[in-house]
């Protein structure tokens, strides 16, 4: 039966299905007692922050530092055959938090990032930022009745849910921040009302944001309304000036995104995560009709299973523009996601005009050691729309008649995390993209392999030692 099923698949998919099937058989056939440990999916962090005590420090002040170095190697940099690159991405984050009263918290954080080993003309904007203000905010907080309320104003991070819609993209050397305001109401059941503008990184000068506040929203995180369910409805507003419509007319983009993310547990050791949203509005003189849907379902093996495997399947779909209506703009706007490993470890593609199916298998050989194996199948949703990068820009523009194939390619990834003595976190991984017909037919057919090894360490200094 298994042989019949595999033989019915295309060659590339048969290869991935065989690998996933054999790995599952191997893991599930090895039985022993053990503690339940699951892979910490990005953007979750592993490892603790090491605490140090300094008696001279005021009790209302905390000093923190995070250092990270990640060496990466690529075989086809920027889709160019034999364009091998090896470089090191370094990042230092230092911060000071002050709490002058019980209702006021202030925070300032610097960032210093470099891409060592790359010529400057090949260094992208998310790799280098020489000593700049990364965050600087004031939090005024209290309660109304029993409900916690806080107002955060200044340069800050926005992280919501799985970060597939709004996240800081922490894997990037220059993670994302916003300038603006966030009114936060509640605690475990919480609503954020924010009005912000994303910060633009200038590698050798001060970072800035665009004129005015352009990104607004209401994002709820409801954890106690439905048993075993985490529900997060949201409404987002995006205002972009100076766009050009499909007819070449200049104007503004006014876009509304409304949707929800839901995650929870199912019977028989299954769990799930789903996110769906629609976009409406105007793009100069065109109307916006777009949307996205993603779903993940995982099965976690019982505690008696060796290496605690968790097997999952994932589906992602973001609309593209088929140009059937000349006045309709149907390419989904991915907003500001944390896109690392959303569409393969090579991080070449974004959540626009995208369809992906993926198989995930993670195991835990030890409580401090986790491994993730993934096989993904990447396609464009519409052949007459472009292939988009992880930043949302068009990497390959579709010809007038559209792409001859919708197959971007397939990817196989193996990644691992190990925590040394609670505080030092090692990340290692390799990913390989097998180019599909679309890439091969449009001068982007170089197979891409990326490998990396990184170390992260975090510390905080208080008057009294406090690990976190």
UniProtKB/TrEMBL annotation:
Pfam family, one: Alginate_exp
Residue intervals of the Alginate export domain: 61-448
InterPro entries reported in the protein's UniProt record: Alginate_export_dom, Alginate_Permeability_Chnl
Organism (species): Granulicella aggregans
Protein name: Alginate export domain-containing protein
Classification via Gene3D superfamilies: 2.40.160.100
Top-level taxonomy: Bacteria, Pseudomonadati, Acidobacteriota, Terriglobia, Terriglobales
